[in-house]
Amino acid sequence: MKTLPLRLAPGADLRRALEAALAEHGAEAGFVLQGIGSLQPAVLRLAGAETTVAPEGSVELLTLAGSVAPGASHLHASVSDAAGRVLGGHLGYGAIVLTTAEVLLVLLPDWAFSREPDTATGYAELVVRRR
Question: Is 15 in a helix, a strand, or coil?
């Protein structure tokens, strides 16, 4: 296990940047332990929904956690707006860093993550393999 603290710059697509950081370090599996920052827009898929939502304006990224894999990440985020309302769900592509995102990424060099169809759930679920 190797920790990789990151500060992502304005304009970065949060999810794509995390997957790129994983690849840059030759890893195929990782976890976000925590992330904070600001986004505009935030792109979230809410529980049970098929499509994403993007709250208007800038939001604070309160929490970020989940698995990271090449093109197969599963990240949950909670964000708050200027009125303090909190919204959470699956982080989608297109969530853009506004001023900063500070993320602690853990690389798992001995493992590879992928997503494959699971007949029990009907979704593409995490598959863990030793490298």
Answer: helix
